[in-house]
Amino acid sequence: MVAPGLVLTVAHVAAPDGDLERAVDVREADSTGVWHRARIVWEHRELDLVLLRTEGAVIGGDLPPVRWGELVSDDPGSRPVCTVTGFPRA
Question: With the C-alpha atoms ordered 90, 3, 5, 63, is the resulting torsion angle positive or negative?
Answer without folding.
Answer: positive
